[in-house]
Amino acid sequence: TGRDVIANEEVRSGEREMGIFIQEDVIWQNGIRLRLGLSYDDADRIGNKVKWSVFPFARLTYPVNLSFLSKSQNTIYLSYGEAGNLPNALDAKGTFWVSVPGGFGNGWVVSSVGNDALKPERIRELEFGFTSKWLDKLDFNTLIYRQHITDAVVYALPVPSSGLGNVLLPQNGGASVGYGVTARMISALFQSSETGIWLTMGVHGQRN
Questions:
Q1: Is the pLDDT reported for residue 8 higher than 50?
Q2: How far is residue 37's CA from residue 79's CA, in Å, rounded to a whole number?
């Protein structure tokens, strides 16, 4: 995918993204399901020195029989996945200059500097959850997760001897860890062949 932008007939910007996604499901007779996935992504919003990024994914689902909920479908699952966030459009591009007036006429100063080694932000998440569905009247799911972010883009001032002035240099260096829990319930208050009323309740807590 991609897009092209022209601003005031002076600035032209193009963005391109491409990727390959592979997924395979393995299902056993007792209902256990294993899903494995892998994606190869590339975009021109990352640095020229960075090659394709690889993001794996895996999910194991196990059916559970709850005797106190007859005619219900219940599963527990464990999943792990990775994803990436692209830098801003010009963070990995070259040096950009702007014209400014001075005492001896117009001059040029640096407005932004790109980093051709800039990588996408990488997000790793591990989840453990439970889902339950009772007939068509009640849906419930809850999960706990741990999220680890690395290679986040941060901006730092260059050393004075670089001559770049007061600009910010994008670089990979930020990291954070977060934990959370979510729960949601959907209940059918009224159902007919043509209409229905449902009640949805949820809660989400997170700490970084």
A1: no
A2: 11
